[in-house]
Description:
Elements: H1 2-24, H2 33-44, H3 46-63, H4 69-87, H5 96-100, E1 131-141, E2 148-156, E3 166-170, H6 185-192, E4 197-202, H7 211-227, H8 229-232, E5 239-244, H9 246-256, E6 276-280, H10 286-292, H11 295-305, H12 313-319, H13 322-325, H14 338-342, H15 350-355, E7 368-374, H16 382-394, E8 399-404, H17 420-434
Parallel strand pairs: 3-4, 3-5, 5-6, 6-7, 7-8
Antiparallel strand pairs: 1-2, 2-4
Helix pairs in contact: 1-2, 1-3, 1-4, 3-4, 7-9
Amino acid sequence: MYQFLQTTAVLLAGISVLASFMIVIRLKQPVSFAWWAIKIFITALAPFFAIASIFDVLLCIITGPLWMVIPGIYSTLVFFIYLYRVNNTIHAPTGLKQAYGPDWENRIKQGQKEHFLSNPVSLTIPAGSAFIFRQDIPFCVIPGTNRELLCDIWTPADNAARSGVAFIYFHGSAWGVLDKDFGTRPFFKHLVSQGHVIMDVAYRLFPETDMTGMVNDVYRAIAWMKTQASDLKIEPDRIVIGGASAGGHLSLLAAYSKSPAFIPVELSDTDLSVHAVISEYGPSDLQALYYHTGQDITTRRQQKRGASKPTPKWVQRMMGKNFHRLGMDKDLSAIGILPVILGCYPDQCPEIYAAFSPVTHVHKDCPQTLILQGSHDLITSVVATRKFYKRLIKKGVTVAMYLIPQTDHAFDLILPNISPAAHTAFYFVERFLALQVEGAAVLKNASMPKNIGK
């Protein structure tokens, strides 16, 4: 028994140290999907690794060898510091306090707070109220075709209080894969409990359409929601759009742009304005994305190599029935590759990369904006996001930004019921949406905060 405990202590110490290493390290492109997945799962399980590290220290003290206490203490500190830093995100100088003033919390109606998370690193999500969930609702037929666009609708129960706010969500996709209803149910259940209506959109992807077509679909979703305002019991002037990764990018582009080129012909005379926009790690500068993701290296290699490799079998097994539903059986060599999607390299057509970059379209009348991103984001450049935030501030846009420490891309989609980073996103989104309820006052940013981080 003693030998078993000693062996367990050594193994646990090794696992904890390796896991703590993944928390600390910032992955850089080009890197394999597996390394990103490991980091995301470890950050999601950080509270459990913290507890396991404490247990390992106690085992090492009891059974020895005593020198193993050192790596145990190290990993314990790493995980608890991570949890502390994530929780401390609420004090970011670029957050809601900067955007709405020091009394911003008092602007939220009391009824909206009933199902709020108490703090960013809440280990559980509060029990929600009853809701109605309807899947595969057609909201548009692409003109000249029989192609239907579908969405899922989440509404509070008939007898539940309504906020009047509608949140239209566009999933992450690298502009080419995935679908609605992927990893977002805990998020939507939480938000619908606060009286909001959620529209989860399945927009067209590459190569079925180009990036302009995707923005067209965002506008089509907005237009549909406005026509359904009475039936869904929402205020048409309280529509918020947002999404993750590519979905966040498309939401920002649709919310900010005044270019007629992005608006579907059939909606040219329709009010497509929105009250606010949320970007969860959505790229704001496509040229920055191209270089941050190492596409200046990998796309050249791909040209020389020719045919792409099939998706690894372990990915297929892990995804199960979702493998085909989410489009992972496509040629993944083109997914997220901007020269393929946009048709040229940034040095050949910088004007195209600029036209599809939200940062290009920033102006003083942009809707209120919430930006959420991990500081270790492997896909979306944190440097570009900070520049984007500064540009919004300079134009006088009401904007809040939170960079979640030591956290990578798509952090809110992996084990969202327990992930501290996911709960942090929930915490800020729920408060931002509550500030969009009619009657909540809005203050423009008065000045540039002194510390935006490095």
